[in-house]
Amino acid sequence: MAKTKELSKDTRNTIVDLHQAGKTESAIGKQLSLKKSTVGAIIRKWKTYKTTDNLPRSGAPRMITRTVSKNPRTTRGDLVNDLQRAGTKVTKPTISNTLRRQGLKSCSARRVPLLKPVQVQARLKFAREHLDDPEEDWENVIWSDETKIELFGKNSTHRVWRTKNAELHPKNTIPIVKHGGGNIMLWGCFSAKGPRRLIRVKERMNGAMYREILSENLLPSARALKMKRGWVFQHDNDPKHTARAEWLRKKHFKVLEWPS
């Protein structure tokens, strides 16, 4: 049996346009000298995939999904080129549609701290130890941190293909070095009840400056948040923080033991 000639992109689009204009499959077939079954197939594909492009054939969808699963930063252009080398011609919109049907969409890669293996293990240990802690315990914690805001730094965006709720998987993130650049340092704190003080640190952040920030802002924040008796303070293991451990003890602050 002779192979059926493939309809041009323009013809497929015309079929959809006529369908949207209210014409029946029979009427469209007569107008374009096509079989009703051919017209129906084009319309069904458009209703299902919202495209008239040729869909990847045979194992192409599996190849597309497998490739982005191994390397989420693969671009649509990379996939088009890979498939062309494998003998399958597809377009970028077709790639997007194929991945969306697998629950994958293009998202900005999340920036996360660059962690050493020992730090990863310490955080995992901490999470397991506190897995069954009651919610009330966490409501009694004041969380704090400082950060540098980059005003004129390199903030280029990287895209990744991922499923919903997978934004923090290591393959979908960009490791960053904390305080790697920028020119505004901020310190802030919050609890389960909401945010509290956020201040700009105008001098170099060292142990003495950190102690001054705590002495001027921590207790006022706790009072404003109406923290219960015995509330707990959290900060990370930055050297300037650990250097203030004795001062915190003298002030009778309870400090949450924090992983590296």
Automatic annotation (TrEMBL):
InterPro entries: Homeodomain-like_sf, HTH_SB, RNaseH_sf, Transposase_5, Transposase_Tc1-like, WH-like_DNA-bd_sf. Residues 1-52 form the Sleeping Beauty transposase HTH domain. SUPFAM superfamilies: Homeodomain-like (SSF46689). One of its GO terms (biological process) is DNA transposition. GO terms for molecular function: DNA binding. It comes from the Eukaryota. Residues 62-132 form the Transposase Tc1-like domain. It holds the Pfam family HTH_Tnp_Tc3_2. This is Uncharacterized protein.
